[in-house]
Amino acid sequence: MAENVVTLKTKKENTEEKVTGFMTRNRSLIVCIVVIAVVAVAATCVCIGLNESAVKKGLSKVDAVEYTLTKDSASLEDEEAALRQTAALADLESLTKKKNVVGVRANMLSADITFAQKNYEVSRTFWLNAAEAGKKSYTAPVCYYNAGVCSEELGDAASAADYYGKAASAPDFLLVTHAMFSQGRVLESLSKTEEALAVYKNLAEKYPNDTWSNLAQSRVIALEISQGTN
Q: Nearest 5 degrees, angle CA 62-CA 63-CA 64?
């Protein structure tokens, strides 16, 4: 036992000597590693701070554009309102390239403006850009839903069905039942009866006490009667 203790003690002392020797021989390298780590952490903090500052400035710009666009807008003549819309879109252009909340807000405002101008193709692009910039945000299903509305205005029913479906797939989307019914309705217009029935039935099953679910159930009955399957 005594020999074992001495042996362990000797090994421990040898290990400590080796570690001490390594630290002594490589102290410059170790200091550099520590310095680099500290600088990296500091740089990360600075970047985060700068990013937060940039986001705040970007959101302030969007707010300023929206305020100028909407201030006393009810009393504006059509020509003056159009000039404001054009100016707003120009001011928002650089902000729509952002891939953060600033980009979401800027694209959504631009989408609203171009939708009011009945420029549905451009409006749809802005809605989709906003959805992409805020993939994990609660705004994404809103943007997909509105992209579906634009697609219907453009006569692009296939895309409308796709975007309504994306909107409906978000569990926290407040208009989920409306989006599901709209998807079913558009699929029905494309003569995709079986797909429409599947959407309607899913809607009625998941949300049995909703107005859109009641409408979906009525479409299920009508479609099954027309197919002679009721």
A: 90
